Amino acid sequence: LQTTNCDRPHKTSSSGSTISAAGSEAGATARPTRAVRWRLAREAARQLALLTGTDGQAVWEWGFVERVASGRLLMQRGHEEGELYRSIADEIADS
Q1: In 3-state terms, what secondary structure has residue 35?
Q2: Phi-psi group of 81: left, alpha or beta (phi > 0 → left; psi -120 to 50 → alpha; rest → beta)
Q3: Which pLDDT tens digit goes with each residue over 7-42?
Q4: Whose CA is closest to 20, among 72, 84, 69?
Q5: What is the pTM of this model?
Q6: Rounded to the nearest 5 degrees, what angle is found at the Cα of 63, between the Cα atoms of 78 and 38?
Q7: Contact between residue 71 and residue 86 where contact means Cβ atoms under 8 Å apart
Q8: 21 to each of 42, 53, 63, how far by Cα in Å?
Q9: What is the 3-state secondary structure (H, E, C) of 47-76?
């Protein structure tokens, strides 16, 4: 992953388009598929584990708790992103 000037992680697709941390290409309005979101989340956890020298499963579990807590806080404060965090946490819990 690289960081942009706003410190949000992104990747570049095979076509050269920028892909956000959520997995969608810049300018695209469709939400990435569950498989894409899952793959990106697992890859991010793997990279964090490698960078920090910690257990990958522990990073994955921390990410789940962080999504739930952040989603609840965002929803309480009226931010639309809170629902996205919650739905991703639900998908992880269902897996």
Answers
A1: helix
A2: alpha
A3: 444 444 455 544 555 444 455 567 778 788 888 888
A4: 84
A5: 0.56
A6: 95
A7: yes
A8: 12, 22, 14
A9: HHHHHHCCCHHHHHHHHHHHHHHHHHHHHH
